Amino acid sequence: MSVHKTMTAKSIDFMSNPVVLSASHVSKSFKLPTEQATGLKQACINWVKGIKGYKQQQVLKDISFEVHQGEFFGIVGRNGGGKSTLLKLISQIYYPDSGHINVSGKLVPFIELGVGFNPELTGRENVYLNGALLGFTHEEVDAMYDDIVEFAELGEFMDQKLKNYSSGMQVRLAFSVAIKAQGDILVLDEVLAVGDEAFQRKCDDFFTEIRKDPTKTVILVTHDMNSVKKYCTRAMMIKDGEVVAIGDTETVTSRYTLANLEAEKKEQENNRAQLEAKRQYPNGLNERCPVLRTFPLKESIYKSSDTFQFGVEYQFDEPGDFYLAIAMHDIRRGGITYDTGAKTIKMEQHGRHTVYFELPLNLFNNGEFRLFTSLRVPTPVDPNNTDMVAVAVDDNACTFVIRDDRNRDYALLSDRAMTIKQIDKPAE
Predict the structure, then answer these.
(1) Rounded mean pLDDT of the chain?
(2) Cα(367)–Cα(398) distance, rounded to whole angstroms?
(3) What is the distance of C-alpha 191 from the center of its chain?
């Protein structure tokens, strides 16, 4: 599999720094049991028949990359791609079948919240226990203890048993131990959204500050592409146990978003095939309208200057007028951004057909959007209104993504679509 590599000025700045972590041709597999021999007789029968009782699952295949001192390095990929296994190899929880991983400096792994904590011990005792598990001496934990407690905001609770802590308090303590440990390399797995809103803001400030420290290196595994773009200097994407992209964050996160869209499309096709095989109607459809789906003409990440083109496939055999109504939902911000109206798009052809539409994107900032199509007929008692016959939701709805360097992420409308300007006080 070819590896897509890209570099920006931000990532090149760190390439002259020493390499603090390197993986060279690393592979890892696991044996998964297929059947269990309940006794000696069954084990002998399996052996005679050549049944191993397990199958080999190759999780990582020939992984190679380097992380330089001072980098905030992101690792992304869909579930099952091998990210967590790679982090456990980096943290020496697992060892590779082939290849090798070299670490220069003190590495502090934070793979799962609260691992190594004992509920029967106090918060204070758990800090020292966890520090010992991370390889720190008692004296080194002494030096870190006040910072850990201050960050966790648990000073008055440190002599209580951990089992009396709320889940949020345990999260704050575990996370504080990890990020306040005086290590050279911090390894984090999906932990940027821990605790309440105030604690998350504190964590955000911490990561903003640690990016400025040229001696600290952070490796972050996450599904949150906003975090990757906000914090990371470089990123790497793993798919099916292989590195498919490594380099600047914008390129890698776009590759990840495309992989999600492709996987979603494949899942939709499989679901439709299964429903057709069982002769069942998807959610929102029925005997009157057994087919109604909205789909993109091209799987891509769009810019605001692009025009999004999509199709709607429908089947409606009843005589009389009928319409399509299309609503656009803002996935991240919530709410219906636009609706065509119930009688705007009148269809002329009955039966099974596909019609095509386009949507200019110049109004919108970055975001993820979803199109829902409904098929409607005139209301018998009120010709000015319509009744819904079916609606295309779930796998039959259509998702598209806008990513443009000129845009912001927060508001829906771009600055090119609308601006608020200061003016002189109008004359009365």
Answers:
(1) 84
(2) 14
(3) 12
d(CA 265, CA 298): 11
Q: What is the CATH number of the domain that holds 22?
A: 3.40.50.300
Place of tokens 């966890």: 130
CA 299 to chain centre: 18
* 372 contacts 329 by C-beta, under 8 angstroms: yes
The reported pLDDT for the residue numbered 40 is 67
418 and 318 Cβ atoms separated by less than 8 Å? no
147, part of any domain: no
Residues 90 and 107 sit within 8 Å (Cβ to Cβ)? yes
CB 19 within 8 Å of CB 234 = no
Best CA proximity match to 320, nearest among 390, 381, 378: 378
Which whole number is the average pLDDT over 279-303? 89
If one counts every other C-beta atom within 10 angstroms of the C-beta of residue 57, the result is 11
| DSSP, res 298 | S
Is the pLDDT assigned to residue 179 strictly greater than 60?
Answer: yes
pTM: 0.64
pLDDT at 8: 60
From 237, 244, 204, select the one nearest 222 (Cα to Cα): 237
DSSP code of residue 91: T
Contact in structure between 229 and 409 (CB atoms under 8 Å): no
Q: What's the token pair of residue 141?
A: 């934990």
Residues 6+ apart with CB under 8 A from 256: 76, 77, 78, 225, 237
Distance CA 359, CA 26 (A): 46
Kindly state whether residues 215 and 307 are assigned to the same domain. no
Residue 241 tokens, joined:
């146990």
Q: Which of 18-27, 162-171, 299-308 has the lowest mean pLDDT?
A: 162-171
Give yes or no: residues 235 and 362 share one domain.
Answer: no
User: What's the number of CA atoms in the CB half-sphere (13 Å) around residue 363?
Assistant: 6
- Asked if the structure places residue 66 within a domain, the reply is yes
